[in-house]
Design brief:
The protein is an alpha+beta fold and about 375 residues long. It is built from twelve helices and 16 strands. Helix 5 crosses helix 6 and helix 5 packs across helix 9.
Amino acid sequence: MSTPAANLSAYPRTHPARCTRYRFRYSECDSCATACPHEALALDEEGFELSQERCRNCGLCAGACPTGALQAENLPWRDWLELSRAGNRLTIACAPSDREAPAIAPCLGALDPVTFAALLARGTQVELLGHDHCADCAHGTAGAEALAQVLDAVTLLRAAAPGVRWGEVTLADAAPNAVKAQPQRRQFFRRLFGRGIDQLQHPVQDQAPVPARAIRAAAPFLPSRRELLQALLVNGAGEDAALPAHPALPAGVPVIDPAACTACETCGRVCPTGALVAGETATAWVLRLNPPRCVGCGVCVESCHRGALRLAETVTAAAAVRNLHVVPRRRCERCGRLYVTTDAGDGCPVCDDDNDSFSAIFG
């Protein structure tokens, strides 16, 4: 039995409004471009542009995007799930190797580790063919590096969900060190630490706030693989499940330094999934975190001009919405208005504006 005809030449489906570069003009995310071995993606302040002339349909860019701005159209996971029901086995071969198998992938490195893990969680025994072809592949070492990330991420998921009866992964005809490439970590550490590890040691506290024009509004979107990841963790170990943050897994946990936060709300406005939401109650300004919606893209960390946010090194399955930071509202002794400030020495912004205007006019 073979997979229904998959269009291996299909270009990735693009969703520009989900891109962190679209949401935040100053974002330096380059995950997709770094993953692409054919320089088919051009990045700018509007997001990205895919060159169909350069694209070789490997799908590696889609696998690297945590927000789902790019989606591989040539990885028919649903069809593969159906195939695996026969004997609880599935063999997947990469197309460039010309190996024959019921399931053909454009590149083994393009396999999504979360969906892959869901297949294994059903007890399916999976065999991978063609990984020893990477050295001669048109996709170069990029596919081998991506496959190394995929297998590493699957290993972490298996360890984090011991209650699951996992199937095994076999690398058929594995050559020595066939999948030993080191994953690309540069973008991952940028997601964890935003402006750099040096800023953690010497924080910059006087940068100007992010201008409003740098942020674009768009409807929040949650990739289905983030929901699937949450289900795998909860089913395998409950909400106490935890695993190390990993560049191939769409998950993260923002951590805040309350002393550095100015309640500017930029992080909530740039978040593409709605994991962070800022707002006011009758008594306070509140920044809320919905953990299962965080994909670890790190744009909140990038956009914080005070360096108040970072991503934790461990991801948990805790699902409860919680307050990440709360700033009490103050009442102005002069005009009686309620206002929010993180500095006890700051006055009411309306009264301060009135004073500034009065001084400008009358000196």
